[in-house]
């Protein structure tokens, strides 16, 4: 009987050792996973700045609009960042058919502060629990041709607060139509930004980010012989109106924002004609996308 009790004792000690080992392994896994999540989130808050080797010569970028903020050049687009509002007053880039024909790279999953903004850009957590999405001014879909371009599109300097119903709705519809128009034209110059007059509110516990009252997009087909342009002013709300109803002259956007878009790009006579008139028949809007928006996208 004494031997039997001894065997039971050894068996008990063996079970205790196994139990402790299991507990140790579980704790180790939890710590490893927790550490990975912590450092991943920490990295997401670190400003990213491209190396000089990633940059191009921007001496030829004479097409940029007037600005009230700090002009920052990235490899695939430029922006003017206004510290007061913690967002760009405009973003500007050229998109062409070759970019659209290129295979799409994976969509970036991380928003990063922009280390190229001298005053510092907003952070991704300035938008957390605010009720507003991080709305791309340069769409990730336009930058899907290249991994660097995609990464650049996720800088927080490229973001403006947008209601989800707008971001996933008419703003998405506009962006997709712009890609159609670019493909047809071969190349478009695109300027996008928030309307910061009469702001809705301010969000952010760290940086104070202004919520715009509307957004604009200006498009220019500047190749000869027939230059043409169009602009859009989209109120910051869900919409069931057709996209054509938001088409306006470029002059109207300049009047609303105080910006001057093409002063250094085209001659005065062409600029006056392009900015004061529009021909909606030259910018055909997809009815299929409109139907998708009012039946599905507005409610996603």
Please describe what this structure looks like.
- With 300 residues, this protein is an alpha+beta fold.
- The protein has two domains: 1-44; 59-299, Extracellular Endonuclease, Chain A.
- It is 34% helix and 20% strand.
- The protein has helices at 2-44, 97-101, 147-153, 164-167, 170-185, 250-257, 268-276, 287-295; strands at residues 70-73, 78-82, 87-96, 133-136, 159-162, 187-195, 201-203, 209-211, 214-221, 228-235, 247-248.
- A hairpin with a 4-residue loop joins strand 1 and strand 2 (78-82).
- It is globular, with a radius of gyration of 26 Å.
- The N and C termini lie far apart (72 Å).
- The model is unreliable at 1-10 and 35-60 (pLDDT under 50).
Which outline best applies?
A: globular
CATH top level label of the largest domain: Alpha Beta
* Tally of separate domains: 2
Briefly note the structural class of the backbone: alpha+beta
Query: What is the number of strand segments?
Result: 11
What's the mean pLDDT score? 86
CATH architecture of the largest domain: 3-Layer(aba) Sandwich
CATH superfamily of the largest domain: Extracellular Endonuclease, subunit A
CATH topology-level name of the largest domain: Extracellular Endonuclease, Chain A
Compute the number of helices: 8
| Residue share in β-strands | 15-25%
**Terminal-residue CA separation:** 72 Å
Q: In sequence order, what are the helices and strands, one letter per element?
A: HEEEHEHEHHEEEEEEHHH
Identify the strand order in the major beta sheet: 1-2-3-6-9-10-11
């Amino acid at each position: 009987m004494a031997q039997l009790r001894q065997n039971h004792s050894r068996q008990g000690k063996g079970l205790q050792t196994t139990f402790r080992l299991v507990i140790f392994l579980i704790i180790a896994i939890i710590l490893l996973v927790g550490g990975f999540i912590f450092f991943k989130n920490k990295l997401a808050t670190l400003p990213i700045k491209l190396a000089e080797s990633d940059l191009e010569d921007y001496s030829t970028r004479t097409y940029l609009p007037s600005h009230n903020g700090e002009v920052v050049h990235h490899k695939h687009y430029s922006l003017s960042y206004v510290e007061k509002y913690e967002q760009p007053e405009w973003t500007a880039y050229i998109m062409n058919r070759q970019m659209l024909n290129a295979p799409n790279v994976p969509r970036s999953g991380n928003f990063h502060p922009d280390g190229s903004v001298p005053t510092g850009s907003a952070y991704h957590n300035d938008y957390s629990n605010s009720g507003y999405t991080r709305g791309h001014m340069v769409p990730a879909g336009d930058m899907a041709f290249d991994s660097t371009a995609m990464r650049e599109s996720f800088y927080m300097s490229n973001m403006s607060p947008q209601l989800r119903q707008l971001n996933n709705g008419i703003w998405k519809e506009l962006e997709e139509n712009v890609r159609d128009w670019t493909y047809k034209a071969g190349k478009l110059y695109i300027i996008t930004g928030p309307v910061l007059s009469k702001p809705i509110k301010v969000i952010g516990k760290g940086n104070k980010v202004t919520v715009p009252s509307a957004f604009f997009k200006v498009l220019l087909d500047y190749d000869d012989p027939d230059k043409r342009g169009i602009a859009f002013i989209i109120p910051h709300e869900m919409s069931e109106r057709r996209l054509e109803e938001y088409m306006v002259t470029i002059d109207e956007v300049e009047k609303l924002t105080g910006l001057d878009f093409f002063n250094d790009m085209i001659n005065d006579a062409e600029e006056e004609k392009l900015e004061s008139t529009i021909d909606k028949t030259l910018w055909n809007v997809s009815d299929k996308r409109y139907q998708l928006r009012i039946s599905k996208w507005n409610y996603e």
